[in-house]
Amino acid sequence: MWCWNKKLRRLCLVEVSQRQRQLNAIRDTRGRMQHFWKAHSVELSAKEMMLDDDADALGLEEIPELLSLLPDLNGKDVIELGAGIGRFTGELSKTAKSVLAVDFMEKFVEQNKTVNGDHKNIEFLAADVTKLDRPAESVDVIFSNWLFMYLDDEELYKLINKLLLWLREGGYLLFRESCFHPSGNIKRTDNPTYYRRPGIYCSMLHSVSAKQGGVECGFELMFSKSVRTYVEVCITKIYILLLFICTFQFYIP
Ligand SMILES: C[S@@+](CC[C@H](N)C(=O)[O-])C[C@H]1O[C@@H](n2cnc3c(N)ncnc32)[C@H](O)[C@@H]1O
Q1: Other CB atoms within 10 Å distance of the CB of residue 23
Q2: What is the pLDDT of residues 115-161, one digit of tens each?
Q3: Which atom of ligand 1 lies nearest, measured to the CA of 129?
Q4: DSSP string, 208-237
Q5: Where in the numbering of this chain does the Methyltransferase domain appear (predicted)?
């Protein structure tokens, strides 16, 4: 790049290094997310899971609310992605046939094991979901609370394609993400989270398809809605927060 004088040259260099920083950041989503969760895996607490000082009170209402939206888990094989310290894992295992609880922070997985290890139908796995593989048609329900927002668009798209393959016919994917804004009140200096619009998730899920037994199959949106617990809290905190739950059904048309 040719610059006419020193000032302009300096500006050009600043612009180039800014662009380089942006590029580095885009290339290194994994590093940024690992770094973020390392910084938030000290206490191994609900506060860290929800990044909110009121986590304990919120959890009392939020956990049953989300669980009430799941299909009947009796006799079902379940995968919980981004399971954290296991706020949901133990509950899921009470009715499911099996639960595979996955998280990429080993400390969270260990904490989950400490709390829920006596449930013999739970398998605990320390793994990055972007690198996870499972056999085709091996799971009935995939549950995930606040994970997709820690993946960039490309990673999320690839994962959703895999989830479709892992699900058995008639299976369910239920996930919950913070949309538009952060949900928790804990200050974050470096926050790499992707606060997408709900429609982005819808179009991404509708855009994937797979062939099983020569038949085209995909996700069908059953419902999406705000989490009531948070809507009520937001009113008292006087800022608007939108959360999104979406259940997709796997179907063979
Ligand atoms: C906001 S916390 C939610 C934890 C748990 N679902 C809950 O509601 O208590 C997000 C979790 O996702 C995990 N996570 C983020 N990116 C991940 C990835 N690529 N693979 C596996 N786990 C991931 C983090 O370690 C963290 O435990």
Answers
A1: 10
A2: 999 999 999 999 999 999 999 999 999 999 999 999 999 999 999 99
A3: 20
A4: -EEEETTEEEEEEEEEEE--HHHHHHHHHH
A5: 78-171
Cα(34)–Cα(108) distance, integer angstroms: 13
Closest ligand 1 atom to residue 155 Cα is 19
Read off the pLDDT of each residue in 165-179 and give the average, rounded to a whole number.
89
Structure tokens at 181: 């804004």
Q: What is d(CA 124, CA 102) in angstroms, rounded to the nearest whole number? A: 6
Q: Give me the numbers of helices (H) and strands (E) for the chain, helices first please.
A: 9, 8
Q: Which two tokens stand for residue 62?
A: 């939020």
Q: What residues are in contact with ligand 1 under a 6 Å CB criterion?
A: 33, 37, 49, 82-84, 87, 102-105, 108, 128-130, 145-147, 150
Classify burial at 15, counting beta carbons within 10 Å of its beta carbon; exposed 0-12, middle 13-18, buried 19 or more: exposed
**Start-to-end CA span in the chain (Å):** 55
- Distance (angstroms) between ligand 1 centre and the Cα of 35 equals 13
Checking if the pLDDT of 249 tops 60, the result is no
Distance CA 174, CA 69 (A): 8
Place of tokens 């913070």: 178
